[in-house]
Amino acid sequence: MDLTELQEIAQKERANSKAIRIRCCMAAGCLSSGAIAVKNSLSKVTIETGLAERVQVAGVGCMGLCCQGPLVQVDGEVALQRIAPLIYEKVTPENAPSIVAALHGGEVKVQKGDLNHPFFTKQLPIVLENSGKIDPERIESYIACDGYQALYHVLRDMTPSEVVDAITRSGLRGRGGAGYPTGVKWATVAKVGGEHKYVICNADEGDPGAFMDRSVLESDPHRVLEGMAIAAYAVGATQGYIYIRAEYPIAINRLQIAIRQAQRRGLLGSNIFDSPFDFKIDIRIGAGAYVCGEETALMASIEGKRGTPRPRPPYPAQSGLWGFPTLINNVETFANVPWIIRKGAETFASIGTEKSKGTKVFALAGKIRNTGLIEVPMGTTLRQIVEEMGGGVPDSGTVKAVQTGGPSGGCIPASAFDTPVDYESLAQLGSMMGSGGMIVMDKNTNMVDVARFFMEFCMDESCGKCIPCRVGTVQLYQLLTKIRAGKASLADLELLEELCDMVKHTSLCGLGQSAPNPVFSTLQYFRDEYLALISLHQS
Fold it and tell me: Per-residue pLDDT averaged across 129-156, rounded?
């Protein structure tokens, strides 16, 4: 394939687009609410009313406002003149005649959403620029939105070192949680010699309440494949792996389809774009162990071994998969890469804060009115996200805290909601960015329960390799249970803090090292709730 053929595919796809397009969300959230029946009903009605020549009913990826699914959106000049707003919520198959009738000016008998709500207007889609717009199971739909243009430009016009330099200048940091500079990681792998090199996409998203990576893979899989191919060219790799948990069957299926389509088009495999560059991608499905999100445990699992972490150094960049240099980034990191190449490193670097560039995708969940997926510039405050975009707590409730970073993060009180969301600011509050889960809690939430829930999660997910994590998380869970039951003393509280410090500083990998964070943060900001339970016992 060459650029001319790529452009011809895009032009043909655009030429075949119809005057009106009815988009039906086919991501997991809407599918679980009956989206397939909605799409089938809309298709049937358009045929029965003789509108099939002018109206296209398309299945697309996530539209973001998951709590209101199934979601349907209408595009097209005719529709824009007659229907406002154009997004419909909680659509049922029975609503299809009303939606189609509205194209002729008929009465709309469907719950309507407000596209002018801050949930939509405050977003800046980079990773999600195609989500909810393209058909994730058709490569032509992706190519029509400039898909694989970045890969062509890289292979034809840039050297590997120039690609690494562009990613470095963009300021992109790893979106998996730690925030390590992506360009530095790529440069390290690129400089290391070796017979083979590997690129791994970490899609083992395991944080409770997090579904960012799953949604990206369900909505725009080719974007991740393109980002991986660009990374492989930059570091000198020829083989890639996507490590994804088995609990994501829709994402797995769409990745498999995307890989086959890219291979048939010559966009994966040998001599991509008639260049000397070869790159192949395979999928490896994990059994759902949370610890396999840690890069060394992940590599062990790909190798067919038990997924347990190993000490570092050596780091994967020097000795990774099967002992060869390996680049590991998560889904969102790779999904940023094509946009950076197409729009320019400086454009990406102009978004966000001084040390945290670009945007971040978050999964809003918990006691909040608008649950779903958002993408905002780094530096957006927690208040803007929770109260404006999220709409606050339902039924006029009061927000108490928000938990970021999953089991590795912390609970941030409402009094600190004016804090900008970036790596450094969240760390100062005792939390972390994490992969992007954001769970909102109201005034009725007991924060000791929250700490106990996450400690139970870490206790269950510990691989058992090191004693501090294997034994320490169990003892911490037992202490939190004792405190919650009102049977603990101040000495137990002191022991809890000592154990947290020990587990944090002596565990082998990030699971154990970060397991005490929810306890630390709740003790810091909600210590009175611990003391109230202890006082109850002592009285």
Answer: 96
CA–CA separation, 283 vs 279, rounded Å? Answer: 14
Q: How many CB atoms lie within 10 A of CB 304?
A: 7
For the chain, helix (H) and strand (E) counts, in that order, are 24, 13
Which strand ranges, in their side-by-side order, compose the sheet holding 87-88? 55-60, 20-25, 72-75, 87-88
Task: Please tell me whether the peptide bond between 313 and the residue prior to it is cis, using omega within 30 degrees of 0.
Answer: yes
Could you tell me the domains of the chain?
18-116 (3.40.30.10), 139-349 (3.40.50.11540), 359-442 (3.10.20.600), 447-538 (1.20.1440.230)
97 phi and psi, to 5 degrees?
A: -60, -35
Helices 160-170 + 221-235 axis angle, to 10: 120
Q: What's the average model confidence in pLDDT over 31-58? A: 94
- Answer whether residue 223 shows pLDDT above 60: yes
Query: DSSP string of 273-284?
Result: GGSS--BEEEEE
- Contact of 317 with 309, CB cutoff 8 Å: no
Give the whole-angstrom CA distance, residue 9 versus residue 89. Answer: 33
pLDDT in tens, 272-300: 999 999 999 999 999 989 999 999 999 99
> For residue 537, what pLDDT band results from cuts at 50, 70 and 90?
low
Tell which residue, 43, 221, 73, 228, has the closest CA to residue 136: 221
- Which of 201, 150, 62, 77 is closest to 344 using CA atoms? 150
- The more confidently predicted of residues 275 and 81 is 275
Which tokens belong to 115? 């596209």
Task: Convert 227-236 to b/e letters by CB count within 10 Å (16 or more is b).
Answer: bbbbbbbbbb
What are the helix (H) ranges across 265-399? 295-302, 331-343, 345-349, 382-383
